[in-house]
Amino acid sequence: MHSNDGFRGAIDAGMGSDGDVDALAALVADAEGVSDAARAVQIREVRVLAAAGVLAEKQAAGASERVKAREMALRGIAAELAGVFVATDRTLQRRIDEARDLVDNFPLTMAAWEDGRIVRGHVRVIQEVGCIVPADDREDFERAAIERCEGETPNRVRGSLQMLAERMHPRTFTERHEEAAAGRCVQVRTGADGMSDLIATLPTVITDGIVDRLTRQAREIINARAKADAAAAAAADATGADGLVDPAGADGSSFVGDTRTIDQVRADVFSDLLLAGTPALDPTAIGDGDGTLGAIRAHVQVAVSALTLIGQDEGPADLAGRSPIDATTARQLAGDATSWDRLLTHPVTGTVLECDTYRPTAAMIRLLRARDRHCRFPGCRQPAIRCELDHTIAASDGGATHVCNLANLCKRHHDVKHHTRWRVRQLSGGRLIWTSPTGRIYREDAAPPLVAFTTAEPPGSPAPSAAPRGRRDGSPPF
Fold first, then answer.
1. Residue 298 and which of 94, 135, 267, 314 are 20 to 30 A apart at CA?
2. 406 by DSSP, 3-state: which?
3. Alpha helices in 194-243 (DSSP H)
């Protein structure tokens, strides 16, 4: 666990004066006006483009070859509008089709957008995700989706809406995943300047694991590089022979002067693993054996319901921070796991209440990862496994090291909490109340699990609603 609690006294000087806060408040007020005006313009544009699609269909009515006639009419209208929007007619034709689909097939979403309940990003997510929902169920999907979008950023709700749409699809996610997995492949696309793209189309859980392992190995190399640079500087200071000391990794490979970015290191490790089977450059090697770099394995966090585990449900599981995965893969991961957590959730709200494990290690960290799922700063979706645990009330101020006073924050937002005027307090159930420097309030509820673990209903009880609720207590966002 990492904490910046000790820096509290040195922070206030860098937070700006009250005058700066007043200036920021004025900017925020202007931004609100700009946002409202931009929303009105965006909605008007969609309505205009949708009307263009209706006009094209009207012009083609009664033609002998109606499909071709509509296409020609649409091309003509798109070409006319392209001059106004300063875009190609192909682009305008695509945007006309998208606008027509939005207006005709997602009327509740359009209404919520016009009312200011959601923003353009939410609309895109609802339209992209909801296209797989049968027309008869789309109204229910829209209602649940809009409720989940209110008070959340578009990137946060995408996973939740994907799970909702998958549940409403007439075919199980497992069936469709099996068909899609049959198309897995590796392709090479030759580029310019002697470079090429190596594209692997693989199941999401595999690609997530690959990227996680490459990232962790790259960070290990970068950390070793920093230590080597520090050792070189210390040795030069001690001997007075600056520039003559060249400390190397235990395998004889020097890290001094290595200025590669993490993306470059990831790419190099990726090449090493495929060509040599192990990282060719291992700063953790000890000369007569492999280092720990090659022993790093991927970490993925998956939530799967008990019914899916025992094969009574084929609904998708949730790969935290990414997307749904099929039930078969989830069962395989559970079977191969050396340890796993059992979550007890609230039967109505779905909030994680308790977490236990059959291999008791760092139970508190595991519970918080299960509860938070991602960084708890408003709008951030960095997975909890890549975050730091933060004391809501600093330990130096008497804050307890307990789940009621801890939350996962990514490095970026951990620093924001401690080095700016953003403030946070934690309520029961893991709910965080953030206050911005200008006094605006943002409520951050514990992330609702996309896979629900609920108590069994007694015989004769009414069936639960098909559309899960978005807010856990039904109240509007602050």
1. 314
2. strand
3. 204-239
